[in-house]
Amino acid sequence: MRIRLLLNRLGYFKYTIHNLIAHPLMEILHLIGLTKYGNVIHDMTLPISEKEVNHGQENNSITN
Q1: In Å, what is the CA distance from 41 to each residue of 54, 55?
Q2: pTM for this structure?
């Protein structure tokens, strides 16, 4: 959750870490059979949507 809140503060660049780090890492983990962990990293680096911010419905993918 903290990572997602931090990413939201980056403004225009809030998807940079998600796109440049999470997507390639997710693909590498998938190729070596660790798809579940790739998905967790992917979801952790998504900035919080306006709907989640307004309703306090932040999902924590690690516990799901």
Answers
A1: 24, 23
A2: 0.63
